[in-house]
Design brief:
Serine Threonine Protein Phosphatase 5, Tetratricopeptide repeat, 2 domains
């Protein structure tokens, strides 16, 4: 929903004009054409609102566009543009929603609805994020657009929601790396799998996948004969996630080969372990 931008919140107080317009179109069906050039900007705006309320966002988007065409300098033109972006989004026409919202930002960067326009741009990417197995290009674009919302409009009502969605999208990218890593691991491509899990540990350590990534590194490195790396991964796992199932599994793997979950050697994981001990990581 639109929050403070709720459709009804935009309704003018001049109910006489609204009633006159309602009487004018009361008998018109959804598919009947109306001569827009014979209507005022307010009447066209009210028509677009009603179309949204009646579940016709595609028609509403076109209607709001008529205000920009016929009354480009009216007070309703600015409001119609943000409503058009909303209507396109409601219709799941994300490219057009994004284009309308971006046009609003270009024309009215300092207006009250600019934060909402930026949020709609972000949603046009975020709401298309599909299952983990698909290409994650949209996820990356969503992250950038969501970051723009809470950095550019930190005091807006959309900043907190944008940050929450940013964290979810970030977690989504980590899940993609985990999926690929597991794919390689199951097929015995331990080096390729370790590279994917390393990405999660280094670049996505604040996500929910870090504990499993560390455990998978223990599995990969033991299979590759890289004992010190496996021990160090187990040590980091134990330091941060000792009560997790992943640490219990790693501990069993290590002790089963007479090894301890202790930092050993001088490798990339040993460097991370030193940071963990100093409290500078996770």
């Amino acid at each position: 929903m639109l929050g403070s931008h709720d459709i009804k919140a935009h309704r003018p107080a001049r109910w006489c004009a609204v009633l006159a317009f309602a009487l004018m179109t009361a008998c018109a069906g959804a598919g009947d054409s109306v001569d827009m050039e014979s209507l005022t900007a307010q009447q066209i705006f009210e028509r677009g609102e009603r179309q949204i309320e009646q579940g016709q966002p595609d028609d509403a988007a076109l209607t709001f566009g008529e205000i920009e065409r016929l009354y480009p300098y009216s007070e309703f033109a600015q409001r119609a543009l943000i409503m058009q972006a909303f209507a396109y989004h409601r219709d799941q026409d994300y490219p057009n929603s994004r284009a309308a919202a971006q046009r609003y930002l270009d024309f009215y960067p300092a207006e009250q609805d600019a934060a909402y326009a930026a949020y709609l741009v972000a949603l046009s990417y975020y709401d298309q994020i599909d299952e983990v197995g698909r290409d994650q290009g949209l996820t990356i674009q969503a992250l950038g657009a969501l970051r723009n919302v809470f950095e550019r409009f930190p005091d807006s009502q959309y900043a907190r929601t944008a940050k929450l969605k940013f964290d979810l999208a970030f977690d989504h990218l980590a899940a993609k790396e985990m999926e690929i890593g597991r794919y390689y691991l199951k097929r015995g491509h331990y080096g390729a799998a370790a590279n994917r899990f390393r990405i999660v540990v280094e670049d996505f350590q604040t996500t929910t996948h870090t504990a499993e990534a560390l455990h998978r590194l223990v599995e990969c490195y033991l299979s590759l004969g890289l004992v010190e790396e496996a021990q160090t991964a187990g040590a980091i796992l134990g330091y941060n996630y000792r009560s997790s199932e992943w640490y219990q599994s790693s501990y069993a793997l290590l002790t089963g080969q007479g090894l301890a979950a202790d930092a050993a050697g001088d490798n990339w994981l040993a460097s991370i372990y030193r940071q963990v001990v100093r409290g500078e990581w996770l």
